[in-house]
Amino acid sequence: MKGLPSSFLIVATAATRLTALFALTATLWACHGPESIATRDARQALAQLAYPAGVPYGPPIDIAAQRQGKTLHLYNRTPAIYRDHQLWLNRQYVNTVPVITIGTDNIIDLPQWVNRYAEPFPVGQWLTPDDAKSVVLAELYDPQNNQRHRLTLWPDDTEDDGR
């Protein structure tokens, strides 16, 4: 760049470097997988829980589940409050839900569910939206009564078929 002052060249070089650094930072941030909200010890404890495949189903309960982005909404349409139940998604991701209150105020972040490898539920990211998985089965397991209950699923905003 003949004829340009040296101060202009220094500023242009610095701006180019800052732009490249910003692009690299944004790319690395967007490619980073979802981090579980639970602590490592909590994830490991949940990962030790086995899916209750042999447990009989109890009577139906009127709780609907719906995935909305990175959260799971539970709509408890019963007159009961449920405490300390395991909620299983797609038979492989588990979370212990301390309380499911009556009504629609039950919103839980999906990365709190983990599989047997302590990996969080896949919610997708900015550059990897295809990593998001649908919730195709939701079961509430009561360890005290040794019963599980299927929840009604409402359509979610992901486009995969749950595989």
What would you note in describing this structure?
This protein has 163 residues and is an alpha+beta fold. Helices cover 21% and strands 28% of the residues. The chain has two helices and eight strands; from the N terminus they run H-H-E-E-E-E-E-E-E-E. A hairpin with a 3-residue loop joins strand 3 and strand 4. It is elongated, with a radius of gyration of 22 Å. The relative contact order is 0.21. About 6% of the residues have low confidence.
Q: Quick gist of this model?
A:
This protein is α+β, with helices and mostly antiparallel strands and 163 residues long. It has helices spanning 6-31, 40-47, and strands at residues 63-68, 71-76, 82-89, 93-100, 103-109, 138-142, 147-150, 152-153.
Core attributes:
4-stranded antiparallel sheet; 21% helix; alpha+beta; 163 residues; 4-stranded mixed sheet; 2 helices
